[in-house]
Amino acid sequence: MAQGPSPSKKSTAQALILACRNGDIEKVDCLLKEGTSANLQGNNGETALIEACYNGNYKISQALLEKKASVNHKTKDGFTALMAASQNGHAKLVAFLLRHKATVDFTDRDGWTALMLACRRGHVDAVEALLRKHQIKDINMKNQGGSTALILACENGHVGAVEALMEYEISVDSRNADGWTALMFACRSDHIHVVKILLTSKKQCLGIPNKDGWTALMIACKRGRVDIVEALFKHGASVLIALKMAGLLSCLLLIMPILL
Description:
The protein has helices at about 5-20, 25-35, 50-55, 60-65, 80-85, 90-100, 115-120, 125-130, 150-155, 160-165, 180-190, 190-200, 215-225, 225-235, 240-245, 250-260. The chain is mainly alpha-helical. The longest helix has 15 residues, at about 5-20. This is Ankyrin repeat protein.
């Protein structure tokens, strides 16, 4: 029967991971000089490098990689050092890990990539670092909920991340599991600047409904956002479809002054 790590090995791993969490480079150096493996794991499979990257400890990460820390190790949840650095916006570490052959398209158990994590939190520098290396095979990859990096950036109103993504071959009409597009999320969250950026794409299809039959225009009307409704009209949103499908008095009252 396979045995787990010995108590001494487990405590050493915990000591190294804790030192990385606390940014204690002297303790890390001491443990590594004593021969502690840089690849010891915690209870969830986390390593010292993942902990260091999560907390933005660049020098500690350097020291660990010099001791052959596995740059692409995954926790039991599929989380990597690159995901940790990206999620918390440590762009310098992101670039550093990529130089050390970190795999950019790895996904965790829920289908999230490093790019998705950076976009959800609006870490523009991290997003740009991930995109700059041209190593992402599919910028339109979806997580298990069907969300793309663009959808996540738009949902949270991160203008800089949206602008960075739009410089690449991004699919603006990708839909999540519920049929929501990036534009719909931007409308629902009242992000007018994001809406305007998305509308610059010639591939934007304004008539796409989600699974509940709602279009971006209908969502904007429901939210009472005259500025967003006007922007959608200027780019060809159909009033008739909105009125026919929504049947909302609020929608009619909102659009009539714009049309008259």
